[in-house]
Structure formats: structure tokens, C-alpha cells
């Protein structure tokens, strides 16, 4: 009896699994018949995938949101798991090697130009941004009105086109910064905007300063939760709850560093100066969870050999960089890439060749991101609710590149060529319920439960 039952389960499993395969490459985002619905995307910087679950009992706004909507179990970011690289992938659906924004710092050797998150003039240079068309530009070209607040470099024209309203990223501190952008988003939804993209930095700032497990971080989540609850209330009062799709995304997670804490779980700090003589390098771009090095022709091998085989990081020449990082096929990749192992952090040089130069006393950091994107601490969130989404379900993990097609689908505009997989996200939508992964997941869970019961 039990054997038969297990066979039945096996057949069930196989049916469930195989019935999903045809949809995996099939449905195209362009076969779209969603009615015109507005879309608001809230990006919460540094919102690690497990923050919500760890304190959901005290969260009101997020819990209400998820009861009415869907969530991906987690989102794997891109490499490097840094803001500008991830923001640009969210906006375009392509990997950094394609959109060309390789991190928060870059160096363009051909034009002798640097890109630094701390220098607005450098990030506002148009040339960096022309490789891939962001969603707000495609929307604008299709006569949709877009409103962006604090969103990446939306203030830089793409091929001479700009969205209707935009203030780019300059950084807005505190929970007040999140409230201001969300309230501005609400006002624009009440007006005639179709696409609203707003950003909050608070959780990332606190995560860096105190680390992902600190009471300050928990407090920050509670603060943002209250701001979200207030926003949802405002949305209801404006009669927009049933007509606007709301998506909350993060860009990356956060790893505990605990610099100076003396805790056994703290990261091990290495000094780049123990391996590299500043005179041998033209530029060191970034530090910590990863860094890249521009050398001279006659120093390349020396620098490479001094790093190769050391404890705490992997070293690659440009042509050795693993394909699966989707990083190496960019003009802006330097001669050497160093990818730090999860329990380490590499301090940069104290030299004008280092971009950026940190305080010599250390950065006194509680947390960091920028590690390899497959590391679980780098994962982030995708929460969505609204007329287009299913209610109250959890979907299998997705990748950061997958989200873009959802945005294009909901706006009823053609997705630009991208690296997303439609079948990984389509199951979250009410209209795409035919054999999608979103159904398989609860059925698999059900199957596991049955299998378990059959052994008891
Ligand atoms: C590159 O620019 C820096 C300052 O921005 C300058 O000091 C340096 O000489 C320039 N290098 C070359 C090769 O032009
Ligand atoms: C940015 O450019 C403006 C105008 O060109 C200049 O006044 C300002 O000093 C620059 N800021 C930095 C940080 O270089
Ligand atoms: C830029 O816009 C022009 C005019 O609309 C168009 O012909 C061209 O293909 C666009 N280039 C890119 C890279 O999108
Ligand atoms: C790195 O440098 C700092 C500051 O100079 C020093 O305190 C620390 O011991 C060094 N770490 C290693 C692993 O050498
Ligand atoms: C990602 O998409 C772009 C645009 O279609 C394409 O050029 C690139 O080859 C894709 N990358 C991968 C790894 O498939």
C-alpha cells in the first residue's frame, strides 16, 4: 500500500514538474493584454531577503502588503552586489557586462575618467549610461508619464530622452527620506503618472553602520514598516488600492562585518598593502568584498603573482573571470579582478591610486555588500501586490534580471532585449496562471507533505 502510494506521489511529482516545462521559454511578454494599470516601484536599498521573516510579528505595513500580494522567496542580485550595478539591472533587465555599470566605482582607462558614487559630477557623465535603455525611457517613448524620485541616474538623458519628472540619486537620510519619496510617489499616482519609481536608502545606511543583526537595524525596519503602512492607508483613502500595482524590491543584501567588535563571527580584515606596491598599479577600483586593478604592462604579472594563491580571496586575470559572473564582457573591466571570500574583507591602499581612499583608522563598519552574488547574505526581496498579482503566495527564488519583464508587462510596453526568464516570474501574475511555476510551488509543498505523511 505504502509503495503504491509513493509511486502515485512520484507520478504526481513528475506530472507537476513536466507540466511546467513548456511555459519556461514559451509565453512572451509582448503577448500582453493587461488593462492599463499604474505601477509604483519602491526600491529599498540593502533590504536583505530574511529581514522581514525575522521580525514579521512586529511589522504591520509589510504584513498587510504580503497578505494582499505575492513575494519571491528571495532574489539573487548580480555581481558585484553593489547599488549602482544592481539599480541598473533592475531598470534594464540585463547583467552589468551588458549595461556597463560595473559597481559604485569605475575607471575608464580610454578616457582617463572615474565614476564614483561619492561624486555626482562623475556619475552624471552621459557616456556611462548609453548601453541599455532603462524602463522609464521605454515607458516615456510609449507616451507613459514617468515620475522618479531619488532613482539612480534617471536625471541623465538616454539617447536624448528623459522621463517626465525625475530627481536622481543624491542620498536622502533617515526614515524621513523614505517617507518623503513614498509620499511624493502617492501624490504622483493621484495625478496622471503611469509609472512611479521611488527609492529609500535608510535600511542600507543602518546596515552598513551597525550590521544586519543590530537592534538599530531592527528599529530601522520598524520605521520603514510604519512609513509603508501610512502609504498603504493613503492609497486606500485615495481609492487607488485596487487599481495600482505596487512592487517593493531591494538591490542587494548585507553581510555582518563587525569591524572592531572582537566577535568571533566578525570578518577577517586583510590589507591590500601587504600584497601590492602602489607604484605598480595605475588604479585600484573599490575594495572590501571585491576590487579590480589596472596595472601597467610590465607590472601585470608581478601584481598577479603576489595575489595569486593567498588566503581569503580569488584572483582572476581579465580573461579568466568566470562567465557566470556576467561581468567580464565589458570595456570597463580592469586587468585583474579580486573576489573576496565570504568571511573576509580587504582594506584598500592608502594611495591616490586607490578609488576611494578610506580613512586610515578603518571604516568602522558593521556590514558590507559587494560580495559574489551567489552568497546567501547578498540576497534581497521582491514583494508585489495589486490587481495584476495573485494574493498571499510565496514563489520560488528569482534573479535580479528577471524583474524587468514584469515591469514592462504591467506597463504594456515592449520589453527591450534582456537577460530575464519570463517563466520565473509569470506565475506571480493572475493572468498567467496556465501551468506556471507559481502553481507548481504550492503543489510541490503539498506533495512533500503527503510524502511525509505516508511515512508516518
Ligand atoms: C588622468 O587624470 C588625472 C586627473 O584627473 C591626471 O592627474 C592624470 O595625469 C591623467 N592621466 C593621463 C594619462 O592623462
Ligand atoms: C561639479 O561640477 C560643478 C560645475 O561644473 C562644480 O562647481 C563642482 O565643484 C563639481 N563638484 C565636484 C565634487 O567635483
Ligand atoms: C537614438 O534615437 C534615435 C532617434 O530616435 C534612433 O534613431 C536611434 O536608434 C537611438 N539609438 C539608440 C541607441 O537607442
Ligand atoms: C592592516 O593594517 C591595520 C592598520 O594599519 C593594522 O592594524 C592591521 O593589523 C593590519 N592587518 C593585517 C592582517 O596585517
Ligand atoms: C543578455 O542580454 C543582452 C541583450 O539581449 C545580450 O546581448 C547578452 O548576450 C545577454 N547575456 C547573456 C549572458 O545571455
From TrEMBL:
InterPro entries: Alkaline_phosphatase_core_sf (IPR017850), Phosphodiest/P_Trfase (IPR002591). Coiled coil: none annotated. This is Ectonucleotide pyrophosphatase/phosphodiesterase family member 6. Pfam families: Phosphodiest (PF01663). SUPFAM superfamilies: Alkaline phosphatase-like. Residues 1-26 form the signal peptide. Gene3D superfamilies: Alkaline Phosphatase, subunit A. Keywords: Signal. GO terms for molecular function: hydrolase activity.
Amino acid at each position: 500500500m505504502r509503495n503504491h502510494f509513493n509511486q502515485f506521489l512520484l507520478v504526481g511529482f513528475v506530472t507537476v514538474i513536466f507540466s511546467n516545462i513548456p511555459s519556461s521559454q514559451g509565453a512572451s511578454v509582448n503577448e500582453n493584454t493587461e488593462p492599463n494599470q499604474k505601477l509604483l516601484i519602491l526600491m529599498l536599498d540593502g533590504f536583505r531577503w530574511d529581514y522581514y521573516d525575522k521580525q514579521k510579528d512586529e511589522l504591520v505595513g509589510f504584513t498587510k502588503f504580503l497578505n494582499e500580494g505575492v513575494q519571491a522567496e528571495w532574489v539573487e542580485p548580480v555581481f558585484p552586489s553593489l547599488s549602482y550595478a544592481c539599480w541598473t539591472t533592475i531598470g534594464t533587465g540585463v547583467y552589468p557586462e551588458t549595461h556597463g555599470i560595473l559597481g559604485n566605482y569605475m575607471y575608464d582607462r580610454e578616457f582617463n575618467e572615474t565614476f564614483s558614487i561619492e561624486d555626482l559630477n562623475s556619475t552624471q557623465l552621459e557616456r556611462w549610461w548609453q548601453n541599455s535603455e532603462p524602463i522609464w525611457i521605454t515607458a516615456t517613448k510609449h507616451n507613459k508619464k514617468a515620475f522618479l524620485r531619488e532613482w539612480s541616474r534617471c536625471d541623465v538623458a538616454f539617447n536624448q530622452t528623459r522621463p517626465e519628472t525625475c530627481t536622481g540619486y543624491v542620498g536622502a537620510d533617515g526614515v524621513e527620506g523614505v517617507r518623503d519619496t513614498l509620499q511624493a510617489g502617492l501624490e504622483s499616482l493621484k495625478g496622471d503618472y503611469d509609472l512611479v519609481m521611488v527609492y529609500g536608502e535608510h535600511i542600507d545606511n543602518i546596515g552598513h553602520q551597525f550590521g544586519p543583526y543590530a537592534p538599530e537595524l531592527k528599529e530601522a525596519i520598524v520605521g520603514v514598516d510604519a512609513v509603508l503602512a501610512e502609504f498603504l492607508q493613503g492609497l486606500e483613502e485615495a481609492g487607488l488600492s485596487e487599481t495600482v500595482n505596487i512592487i517593493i524590491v531591494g538591490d542587494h543584501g548585507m553581510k555582518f562585518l563587525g569591524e572592531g567588535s572582537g566577535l568571533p563571527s566578525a570578518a577577517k580584515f586583510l590589507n591590500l598593502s601587504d600584497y601590492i606596491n602602489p607604484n605598480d598599479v595605475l588604479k585600484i577600483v573599490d575594495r572590501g568584498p571585491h576590487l579590480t586593478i589596472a596595472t601597467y604592462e610590465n607590472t601585470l604579472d608581478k601584481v598577479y603573482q603576489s595575489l595569486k594563491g593567498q588566503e581569503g580571496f580569488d584572483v582572476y586575470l581579465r580573461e579568466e573571470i568566470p562567465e557566470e559572473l556576467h561581468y567580464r564582457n565589458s570595456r570597463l573591466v580592469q586587468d585583474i579582478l579580486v573576489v573576496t571570500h565570504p568571511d573576509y574583507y580587504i582594506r584598500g591602499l592608502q594611495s591616490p591610486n586607490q578609488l576611494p581612499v578610506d580613512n586610515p583608522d578603518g571604516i568602522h563598519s558593521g556590514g558590507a555588500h559587494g560580495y559574489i552574488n551567489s552568497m546567501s547574505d547578498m540576497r534581497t526581496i521582491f514583494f508585489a501586490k495589486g490587481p495584476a498579482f495573485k494574493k498571499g503566495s510565496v514563489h520560488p527564488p528569482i534573479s535580479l534580471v528577471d524583474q524587468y519583464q514584469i515591469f514592462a508587462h504591467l506597463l504594456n510596453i515592449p520589453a527591450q532585449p534582456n537577460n530575464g526568464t519570463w517563466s520565473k516570474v509569470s506565475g506571480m501574475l493572475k493572468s498567467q496562471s496556465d501551468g506556471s511555476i507559481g502553481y507548481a510551488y504550492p503543489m510541490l509543498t503539498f506533495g512533500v507533505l503527503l510524502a511525509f505523511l505516508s511515512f508516518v
